[in-house]
Amino acid sequence: MIETLTAWTVAWSLHPLAPWALFLIALAESSFFPIPPDIVLIPMALSNASSAFFYAGICTLGSVLGATIGFIIGAKGGRPLIKKFFKEEQLSKVEKLFQDYGGWAVGMAAFTPIPFKVFTLSAGAFRAKFRPFLISSTLGRGARFFMISLLIFLWGEQAKGWIQENFAVLSIILALLLIISVIIFRRFQRL
User: Fold this and answer.
1) Among candidate residues 34, 27, 110, 112, the one with its CA nearest the CA of residue 73
2) Domain extents for the chain?
3) What is this structure's pTM?
4) 77 vs 58 pLDDT, higher one
5) Which string of DSSP letters, residue by residue, matches 95-146?
6) Which of 31, 39, 132, 191 fits a disulfide with 103 by CB distance 3.0 to 4.6 angstroms?
């Protein structure tokens, strides 16, 4: 089923309504859809590298709006809702991150291979503050999608293979940068 869904999603990248499809897939992935929008963003950016940043913006906007919807769903449904969809082990780890970092925890998942919807739904269920949630979602998702677009803009088709091979390393580097940024921001906020 996932392979069929993936093929359907990639097929949208070549459709004349591809920007709308990208927006809707990014929106849905942040709250319930299992396929990341990258698989539409990458072929779209490759087919038109001069529009890669425009596509990254569409993807970021859709993803952040979807994250907001996920937050609201999590807030309304609470922990019983997210227990239906995710393993208790996953939820315990995510809850610990929210206890330690609040809404900023979402930023760590925003550009990693971790399913973003786990964090968006959990943020609402665990009553994270909305403002840090929204800021970290925007920064994290924007960093992810604009990084992909930048690599494609600079190196075209060569970037596709490199992104696939090194995505975990890039995610770790971006996660560390985000954590450092949050720590610095929190320190300055206390001054």
Assistant:
1) 27
2) 2-190
3) 0.77
4) 58
5) HHHHHHHGGGHHHHHHTSSS-HHHHHHHHHHTT--HHHHHHHHHHHHHHHHH
6) 132
